[in-house]
Amino acid sequence: MAANNNPTGSKRRHYLAALVLGTALTTLGSSGAVASESTEATGKAVTDISRYCTTCWRNARLPADCWGDCTQEVFSRLVQTISPANWAQVFSADGAARLEFLRAIDAVKKRTQRQLKRCTALNHLVPDLTHSLERQLLDDREVVHTAAQEVLTERQQQIVRMSLEGWAVQEIADELHVTPERVSDEKYKAIRKLRQHLQVA
């Protein structure tokens, strides 16, 4: 079976595994009402932890669309350090369980904030790159326009200009009242002249 490289899918599997494991551990070796009470206690702990995490993400001003993934990551960390049967202890005033819980929340919050900062930096970079490419395109067109005035006939200049503006061969032919074959031929000659001229320059 091929390996699954989807990090979100992996987190979700950890979360579901934690819930299943919690139920299994609390019912193992128990019977009747005791098993039911243990399962309900674990389910309540999961609900309380989820609510607590949501409050933390809101207070940290994390985007709402990442709250679910952040909470799943907290559960993934908890299941590695605390038995699901003891998850209710994370709300005790002190103790190792609460400390591990707070560490997990803090680690997930900081990791998410770092990722958001990197995304923000990239978002600022993209407009700069777009502006640079647009400037380069304008510069290139200016070079072609200048060269065209020096080496091309008026008809060839029209064809090159219209081609750069996105006109199709048939549209150019209709506009200039010539055949499409004539347009293609003049365009080919114009491009060859421009290449030769720019190489010499």
Task: Offer a quick outline of the entry.
The chain is mostly helical. The chain has helices spanning 7-27, 32-59, 67-81, 96-151, 154-164, 169-176, 180-200.
Describe the structure.
The protein has 201 residues and is mainly α. The protein has 2 domains: 8-124, no CATH class; 130-200, Winged helix-like DNA-binding domain superfamily/Winged helix DNA-binding domain (Arc Repressor Mutant, subunit A). The protein has 7 helices and no strands. The chain has helices at 7-27, 32-59, 67-81, 96-151, 154-164, 169-176, 180-200. Helix 2 (32-59) packs across helix 3 (67-81), helix 3 packs across helix 4 (96-151) and helix 6 (169-176) crosses helix 7 (180-200). The longest helix has 56 residues, at 96-151. Mean pLDDT is 74; it is low at 10-37.
The radius of gyration is 33 Å
List the total number of helices: 7
Query: Using DSSP, what is the number of strands?
Result: 0
* Quaternary structure of the protein: single chain
The total tally of domains equals 2
Element order: H for helix, E for strand: HHHHHHH
Distance between the termini: 60 Å
Outline the biggest β-sheet: none
Strand content: under 5%
What labels would you give this structure?
Arc Repressor Mutant, subunit A; about 200 residues; 2 domains; mainly alpha
